Amino acid sequence: MSSTDTAVSTVITGISTLVTNDPSLGDGSPLGLVRDAAVVIEGDRVVWTGESSKAPATDNRVDAGGRAVLPGFVDSHSHLLFAGDRTEEFNARMSGRAYSAGGIRTTVAATRAASDEELEAGLVRHLAEALRQGTTTFETKSGYGLTVADEARALRIAARHTDEVTYLGAHIVSPDFAEDPAAYVDLVTGEMLDACAPHARWIDVFCEKGAFDGDQARAILTAGRARGLHPRIHANQLSYGPGVRLAVELDAASADHCTHLTDADVDALASGRTVATLLPGAEFSTRAAWPDARRLLDAGVTVALSTDCNPGSSFTSSVPFCVALAVRDMGMTPDEAVWSATAGGAAALRRDDIGRLAPGARADLLVLDAPSHVHLAYRPGVPLVSQVWRRGVREV
Ligand code: NIG
Ligand code: FE
Fold this sequence. Notes:
alpha/beta, Urease, subunit C, domain 1, TIM Barrel, 7-stranded mixed beta sheet, 14 helices, about 35% helix, binds N-(iminomethyl)-L-glutamic acid, binds fe (iii) ion
């Protein structure tokens, strides 16, 4: 197609079902489904989507062979800067022991002991694993260092691999401050924030019994905001609490987990811009009750689905697995789950250039070895992702 610059254009044709997430396209549903579709990519952008028969001429042509094409998954919540192993903790839990925030300390000790190279190698390995399963954008957090130097280095390493970096010095009170949590909050909002803010976009707090209460969380997020970091919160994961309402009050981009919600929490989410990010890998891996996606959706809340990939409570990098769980156990339709794992994740990161396949969007997409996106839930556990394109380049 004609171009004002030298970017090469490529058309992907032969798409049985194309998820655009643009309701002005195709069938007019929230997924904007186009049948017998094509996508035209120029450089790193989508420049055209529509019916195959109407596709404009391009330099290159790729035939999807009757497969489905979706926007790449946007995994808006992960903890990939860690070292060590918690297989035994998982094993014990599956043999009856309860999950608590305290297990985080095991990973903190191992992470502090790791070299920069080891930490980065772990991150790169998990990112490659996620990419093979269709994740083209990921957010990741610090939170297993809990010293000024260890938090800052985690964020520095993360920032080499993604723009969506979150400072989570307030994951738990550092074991070094067990006798004086207030002094740890001072560190997180003072010297540690100074060292971390240059490397992060977001600030997060684990607002939970055994971690930080509502007042501490407010102080930490407010301090971060004053340094240009935008809030997101681990809220209402293990018990009822103030996290979700605080998230809405502070216009956090996302309240994550949302497993224990009162009606007031749901009303608050419905009244604000804060996305409810559901992380079913955590309920799976802690054998806990599922968050009720149906209740949130029926109230008009925007829902994202994400992996929470971390070595303690959810050691999966697979968004397709989370989609299948959400459909089977959380009351989501396949269309809703796919939307939440793509456009929903983008909303949780306040991004409009990803999570959709319409002109102007980033050419981040995946080809499923299946005729429709519904197969992500219909064929759970099957590795259906057969191609992944990121910024217009095929990477898988
Ligand atoms: O999102 N909730 C707090 N943080 C993680 C758990 C981290 C861990 O157990 O190591 C989560 O589930
Ligand atoms: Fe988390």
